[in-house]
Amino acid sequence: MIILLAPFVSVLFFGMTAICQSNALSTAEVITQKTTPATPAPVDVTNSTASPAPAVAAAPTVTPAPATAPIAAPTTKILAVTGWSAIGNKTFVPKEEGGKILFTAPDFGAKGKSLAAYFDKTDLTDGQTLKFKANLRFTGVSSTGNFRYGIFKKRSKDHSRGWLGYCAYAGFDKNFPKGNLIARLPENDGAFDGVRDGEDRPTALVIGVTSAGPKTLKDGVYVMEMAIHRAGEKLECMASMAPQGELGSPAVKYSGKDEKPATTSFDALGFVTHQVLSADSLEFSEVSVTLETP
């Protein structure tokens, strides 16, 4: 019985082996198909209708602003004031002490006096301003009169004739009821505070009258001011004189313009007391002359 079954078992074994091998090959084929990537179809770029990427615009060129020179700061130059004297009277010497300059003498007020002081020659350029300021104490005023002062270019320290510049009147003068701000004429030969010379020829041009006063001068301290400003070829002059305790109520106040100035150069201060003022003494203090440049 065992011998009869042997051929059948052999056939069955080999049949099963063949089936297993067949199934193994089928499984390998499936795995190969699943894991092998598909080859993509070629792309025809010659007939592509895709739009090209937009061009990127170049950044604009920024031109730097031109460098500007720094603006110079305004400056103020202080000019020393020296050489106080009575013009034409070398024996009359004022007393100077503690920043004060005192002019007095027996019968000082009995006759008018021309006084002066000096500073370095200063040529005004366009935009510059030359300023004078001082306190002035009158003592012993016994009559109605006037006082005159200004900034000048001197001709001589020995006399006041032919000086150029500007002079303001303070106080009362019946010949000038509205005061007087004058510009000296070129080539004049008169005293620096007058308007006509000894031959009745004009020596000065009136460029302004007072906008306040004029008020009578009395004993006490007054603040004097004058400024000369250059604007192109013209000169503008401002002047005022007010009681120290009443600066808002000046005795005189001027503003004028000189269209054709005889000079733009200055080096002197001038003052005149007329005998009708009858002051026993004049005392200057806190005197300053400055040059302002914008």
Please explain how this structure is put together.
Strands 1, 3, 4, 6, 11, 12, 13 and 15 form an eight-stranded antiparallel beta sheet that branches. Strands 2-5-14-7-8-9-10 form a seven-stranded antiparallel beta sheet, with no helix packed on it. The chain has one helix at residues 2-35, and strands at residues 75-79, 82-86, 95-97, 100-104, 113-123, 129-139, 146-153, 164-171, 181-184, 204-208, 220-231, 234-243, 252-258, 265-273, 281-293. It contains one helix and 15 strands. Strand 12 and strand 13 form a beta hairpin. It has a domain at 112-293: Jelly Rolls (Sandwich). With 294 residues, the chain is mainly beta. The protein is 12% helix and 39% strand. The longest helix has 34 residues, at 2-35.
